[in-house]
Write a structure and sequence with these properties.
The chain is α/β, with parallel strands linked by helices and about 270 residues long. The chain contains ten helices and ten strands. The strands form two sheets. The chain has a six-stranded mixed beta sheet, with helices on both faces. It is globular, with a radius of gyration of 19 Å.
């Protein structure tokens, strides 16, 4: 295991009640690396984000961030842990009753004791970074979908996080807005040196910006590799997934007790 890994999952298993979600997952994200997690709905992708943020705890294994076990953190330690973290939620999740300015200022006010003039300077700086300086007085209802997602990104990077979590950041965007958000994610990640995990279904745009990809199926790592390795993979499952093909080893309906690994011969790429 690389000593440069910033986020590590070591043999992690997790279940909601009696329903297993993750099964003995191990993966690493290096400092400054942008990693995509892909897979079908319900495969456990968003659960990985919840484990990193400490919203849920693994029943088996360890989730380590900068060498510390998230599952063993106290409430006060989790609060400090989350201060180092930015989160871009699906559809942005802006506070609808707060202005653009107050949305971006929210984490700064929550986690710091900076005076109003410093808060204003930081908010305007973050809005400028996403190309939206001048929108600070607008309300979320006055924003387009792409603008709202960029405001949410400005809020997520308000405290220059060491960790960024993206939960389906491209959902519902038109092609131009999608390309803009993808470019911003890549540029901001490089500029901040952030370790980032992105859950996404947008295969082609994600492969343009990420450093590494993990595919999850039935709670396990089905395949992984760099974007080039994924594109050139000879795995029928990976080929079907990245090309969005209806015909292939993954059918619309398949016997619930049959595993993808047994039926489809999944392996690493």
């Amino acid at each position: 295991m690389s000593t440069d890994s910033f986020i590590e999952f070591n043999n992690v298993s997790f279940a909601y009640g009696e329903r297993p979600i993750l099964r003995n997952i191990s993966l690493q994200i290096a400092r400054g690396q942008l990693v995509a997690i892909m897979g079908g709905s319900g495969s456990g992708k968003t659960t990985l984000l919840r484990l990193i943020s400490g919203q849920v705890q693994a029943q088996q294994g360890q989730v380590l961030v900068d060498g510390r076990d998230v599952g063993r953190m106290s409430n006060s330690e989790l609060y400090q842990h989350r201060r180092r973290m930015g989160m871009l939620f699906q559809f942005g999740a802006l506070f609808t009753d707060l202005s653009v300015f107050d949305n971006v200022a929210f984490p700064i006010r929550e986690h710091t004791a900076l005076d109003d003039s410093m808060v204003r300077d930081l908010v305007l700086m973050k809005l400028h970074a996403v190309g939206l300086r001048g929108t600070e007085a607008l309300m979320p209802s006055e924003l387009s979908g792409g603008m709202a997602r960029r405001v949410a990104l400005a809020r997520a990077i308000a405290l220059d996080p060491q960790i960024m979590l993206y939960d389906e950041p491209f959902t519902g965007l038109d092609p131009i807005s999608l390309a803009t958000i993808a470019l911003l994610i890549k540029k901001l990640n490089d500029a901040l040196g952030t370790s980032a995990l992105m859950v996404t279904h947008d295969v082609h745009k994600s492969l343009e910006i990420v450093d590494h990809v993990y595919f999850i199926a039935e709670g396990k790592i089905a395949a992984s590799g760099t974007p080039d390795e994924v594109r050139n993979s000879d795995s029928p499952w990976v080929h079907q997934f990245i090309h969005g093909e209806a015909d292939g080893p993954v059918h619309f309906a398949y016997p619930a007790r049959q595993s993808l690994a047994d039926n489809f011969g999944l392996g690493g790429v």
